[in-house]
Amino acid sequence: MKTLLLKPAQISKAAKILQQGGLVAFPTETVYGLGANALNEKAVRRIFVAKRRPADNPLIVHIADKKMLPELVKEVPSSAKKLISKFWPGPLTIVLNKKNIVPDIVTAGGKTVAIRMPAHPVARKLIQLSGLSIAAPSANLSGSPSPTTAKHVIADLKGRIECIIDGGESQVGLESTVVDLSGKIPVLLRPGGVTLEQLRAVLGKVQVANVHAVKPKSPGMKYRHYSPKTNLILVTGKGKIKKITPLINEKKKVALIASPEVADHFLDRKIEVIMYGNLLTLARELFKILRELDQQGFDYIIIHDVPEEGLGRAIMNRVRRAAHQVV
Predict the structure, then answer these.
(1) What is the mean pLDDT of the chain?
(2) Engineered SS bond to 35: which of 47, 136, 202, 209, CB 3.0-4.6 Å?
């Protein structure tokens, strides 16, 4: 299959591909998504084939206007209305009880559907021009780091999908926050750009899901995700410098992703040190860094933990799932 690489000005061509049951990779503010007509079961099934994605891993449905929501869900509770008013369009996905019009393949057979309204203008325009709600996981091969540029999508999916819209680099860099509003108490299923603290400021009580004890209602809850091919070692807890030091073998090609405080101790070692300034930068660049290091033939990559609060909770969710080893 020939994969077209389109500019945003050619978006009408991509909309037609979606209408015809094809697959389109498109930019969002979080990561690039791989989209199909959410109400076309055959088209959605092709997403799983292209990504080599397990069928029991649900998808997120993207809409361009909150008026599209009643078509897909049985009701929109007050909790959802509050979050929509505050955070849509943006990196927040809400899980609600679905209508039968939503195919079971989208929800992995579940009774709920995950929905978000992306903020990226190209994503919104694609949905509007196609006239469709679009089911879209990240536009990568399952398990690999999520794509934040069209180049990443090409590396994973060229020849497997109809087209890619190059809309530049994603600004958030991590997938959306997912919160389940289908029950009495809101439950955070996946942390992301909208933090737990922000959710609680709007809703009050918000529980955090035990991902090992629930049937997945959201992507990113069951399988290993975001992993580079290169062995990734996560260093946690106190004494990070003491823990990292014996891991460095200068006969090996080693990369270290670290805060300035930690990185300063290793700048004189014969290793590659990638220093980030703050958590916003780390979130935006994490997947890009992992992909670039994968291409440079490192024997292993070391990364240390960050405080699991605010955006740090989302970063650590991704890093823990990506890591091959934890120290």
Answers:
(1) 94
(2) 136
